[in-house]
Amino acid sequence: MHRTLLAFAFAMIFCAAGLAANSAVLPSQFGPWQAEAPPKELNVQDLGADWAKWPDRDRVLEEASLEGIEERAFRGSDGEITLRAFVLHDPSSAYELYTFLLAPGMKDLGIGKDSAGNDTIAQFLVGNFVVQAKLPSSAKPDSLKDLFAALRQKADPTPMPPLKAYLPEHWKIFGSEKYALGPEAFRAAMNSLGIDAGAGLANEVGFENGVEAMFAGYRGEHGSGTLLLLEYPTPQLAEQHLHHLEQALPADLKRTGVTVERKASLLSLVFAATSPQHAQAIRDEVNYETEVTWNEPGHTATDPPLVLIMFKIFIFTGLFLGIATAVGVAFGGLRVIIKRLFPGKVFDRPENIEVLQLGLSGKKIDPTDMY
């Protein structure tokens, strides 16, 4: 009996270990890299000194609906790689965290559509996962492409927020992009971009109404500035918050020429612009166009020749007249035949005929005299 219970306990342990391995985000191997140990589950407090430079990290992670953090070490011929995967609620929340970790000076690593880092630190976004990697000096960031392909099969395939596609590419400073779904990420973006006076707008833009915010810094030949885009669910909400933000803008920002402009459901502000002309030039580059779609099926009308039209008119008119005449003759002939065969029985029965009598003579009117 004890041996049976012991065997059952070992079986349950092995099953639990197997389920844990299957539920792990990071694979046991990718490319030439082999995992040294099972993945470790981390808490926010376990992130270490690397996260100390972000004092508001805990609030941003909570706002982004962090569901878990996983860390795993891998070894290959080029040394050791330490990977850290952040599991978020959805791709929009993951993009918020990904841009929170961006900083000017990073470069595009070419791992998927969203990746950044340098020769020793890399991070990339895939679905609802944000992955950080510490690379040895002998390893190339390209070695993470196999990992990206493996994670894409597990990641949430929901599309990224369309707001990121509205940002102009011309003059944009890579690494300055910041996306916010709530006030914590909004304030963190303002502080990281050096717009401290605008941090108070986090409570004014209307996150409770479903607004999304996108920041990016721009530097061109004639000046610089920081663009903020705010997308609302409807143009009516955008118009309402346009007037509210105009009143809520701090005096310091108004003195620097910051204004709010609306285009359909999108509001735009440009902070720290070198000149009003440069601020307008950045706005003019925004990739946002309103569209009205009509999904009702249609067809291309082509007019037939006039001779064919007249021919069809005469044919169908003659056909209608012929049918009407035939029906009339048939009805009238049938009525006459029935009256001959059954006089006063079906049609014109005396009891059903009423005649108005003026009484000018003494003779009583016989209704049958009229037929």
Helicity, as a percent range: 25-40%
Our measurement of the CA-to-CA distance between the termini, rounded to an integer number of angstroms, reads: 115 Å
Low-confidence stretches: 1-22
The CATH class designation of the largest domain is: Alpha Beta
Q: Count of helices?
A: 9
Query: In one word, what is the shape?
Result: elongated
Q: Which terms would index this structure?
A:
alpha+beta, eight-stranded antiparallel beta sheet, 9 helices, 3 domains, Protein Transport Mog1p, Chain A, 13 strands, disordered N terminus
Task: Give structural notes.
- The protein is an alpha+beta fold.
- The chain folds into three domains: 26-160, Protein Transport Mog1p, Chain A (3-Layer(aba) Sandwich), CATH 3.40.1000; 161-288, no CATH class; 323-370, no CATH class.
- The chain has nine helices and 13 strands.
- It has helices at residues 2-23, 57-63, 91-100, 145-152, 183-192, 235-248, 251-255, 276-284, 306-341, and strands at residues 29-30, 33-35, 40-42, 66-76, 79-88, 115-117, 121-126, 129-134, 178-180, 212-219, 224-231, 261-263, 266-271.
- The strands form two sheets. Strands 1, 2, 3, 4, 5, 6, 7 and 8 form an eight-stranded antiparallel beta sheet that branches. A five-stranded antiparallel beta sheet has the order 9-10-11-13-12, with helices on both faces.
- It starts with a helix and ends in a 30-residue tail after the last helix.
- Residues 1-22 have low confidence and may be disordered.
